Amino acid sequence: MFSNDDDNQGVVLGVLFGVIALVIGLVIGVGIYKTNQMAAPKAAPVADVVADGTSIRVENGVVKFYFATAKADLASGANEALRHVVMAVAEGKKALVSGFHDSTGDLAKNEELAKLRAFAVRDALKSLGVAEDKIELKKPEVMTGTGSNAEARRVEVTVN
Length: 160
Known about the structure:
Elements: H1 4-39, E1 55-59, E2 62-66, H2 78-81, H3 83-90, E3 95-99, H4 107-127, E4 135-137, H5 149-152, E5 154-159
């Protein structure tokens, strides 16, 4: 009633279905990997925080702009550092911009300077095509930044 050919045919079909499932899984896995690589923010190629200069750093998806004392000028490379923020906003998210200041000097002047720095970053986002209603300026509860004075003089951009 049963032949040896039927047993071999079942084994061959089992191996064939297994190979097909493996190929499909591999294709899906590679697609997911490439999608995550494209969506992951890349660090901007800039130097560490300079003692009294401007720089940009991208850490865990947060773009941090550092400023010179009493200045609101953005470091070169701002557009490249904001690239992933612009892409995220295009996908329907919002950019949250928060300004901080160091602990030296007059507090009121420092708070105003932190606001001007946040406006400079907002303007950079707008120049890259981000609509103003997609940018939220948020005053942090504690505006005095952490770290050294050079690290405290910053604006942070996150995506929500």
